[in-house]
Write a structure and sequence with these properties.
Elements lengths: L2 H9 L4 H4 E9 L2 E8 L12 E6 L3 E8 L2 E8 L1 E5 L4 E3 L14 H11 L2
Parallel strand pairs: 2-5
Antiparallel strand pairs: 1-2, 3-6, 4-5, 6-7
Length: 117
């Protein structure tokens, strides 16, 4: 594994690089924008069906732990597949967000704990 991938794994939410490729990053004011694109791997529950890639869902922005003095924003493009037999569109189902938020679970849990004090 390259040192750059190991470094990215240390900064990003656990396991996200199992699902996504890091495609870009930019500094914008006091924010670090981290661009991720879902890997073209069909969800396991559909792997035995006939399918084809069907573009991307709209990009979502997720807030994560700050990195140095920068707010960290993950810009994620999730893939969509078309099941050709039933003409049904499907997406992967990974558990990254804290329910009801646009934050990673770890960051939301940290803020909830901080609010107690």
């Amino acid at each position: 594994m390259s040192i750059y991938k190991e470094f990215a794994q240390a900064l990003l939410p656990d396991g996200i690089l199992d699902y996504c490729d890091l495609t870009d990053f930019k500094k914008k004011g006091n924010a670090l924008l981290i661009f991720l694109e879902e890997k073209p791997v069909i969800p396991s529950e559909y792997k035995d069906e006939s399918y084809r890639l069907n573009g991307f869902m709209p990009e979502v922005t997720i807030k994560d732990f700050p990195i140095r003095e920068f707010k960290a924003e993950l810009k994620i493009k999730r893939r969509r597949w078309l099941l050709t037999g039933s003409n049904t569109k499907v997406t992967g189902n990974w558990d990254l967000l804290s329910p009801g938020t646009r934050m990673t679970k770890g960051f939301a849990d940290f803020l909830k704990e901080l609010a107690k004090y």
